[in-house]
Prior knowledge:
This protein is mainly α. It has one domain (29-105, 127-206). Helices cover 69% and strands 0% of the residues. The protein contains 9 helices and no strands. The chain has helices at 2-24, 29-59, 68-86, 89-96, 128-144, 146-164, 172-185, 187-195, 199-206. Helix 2 runs antiparallel to helix 5 (128-144). It starts with a helix and ends in an 8-residue tail after the last helix.
Amino acid sequence: MNRLITIVALLSACYVVSAWKDWKEGKSQCEICMAETGAYLTDFKLARNQQIPKLTDTCGKYPTPDGSCSSLMEMFKYTYDTLESRLAAKEICAFYGICTSETTIDTSDPAIPAAPVSPKDPSKAYDDATCYNCNITATVTYLNVGSYAVSMNAGLENNCLSWTKAGMFPTTEEHKHCKDFMGKVFDKLTNTIRDKSNVNYLCSDLFDVCPSTQ
């Protein structure tokens, strides 16, 4: 049975690759770039619809100062909105020099609202069981949210390299070009999603049920 499933999966993958090759025939480089780059926006919208409820649910699991969860979700909403607006395929491909566009991608520094931090009592004794359970909850949240942001960031940088490299392998200068692009457009946004969905922020900074590991 497992062998049959593997064969079916391989045939399906081959079909997708073949269909993609057939679609690319007769398409311009700009159209291909926009299709490949646009897939990130499509995937991000689906991920966002799953991640926002997950973050909302996680924030409600432990007591926090009034307004903390609302502030956190406003911060995430701004970050997601800004990230979504910058995943414009035509503008990205124009930056690569593959397409032309009347508008340019936004490279301004995003004014991300500060994430809430609960006040700390230096004399507080933390309960090991509560901290342990929070670590499990926060780890699941990070695997759904933070790790996705890390993966998407890496994918976008690789996408940049695949479209801007002149040879088979990107040069040091081409790597720098794409890292600069990511730094101006995406890094602050994806790093915020990563950093504000991790165990230390959630369990220590926000919920204050664990001592800080930083």
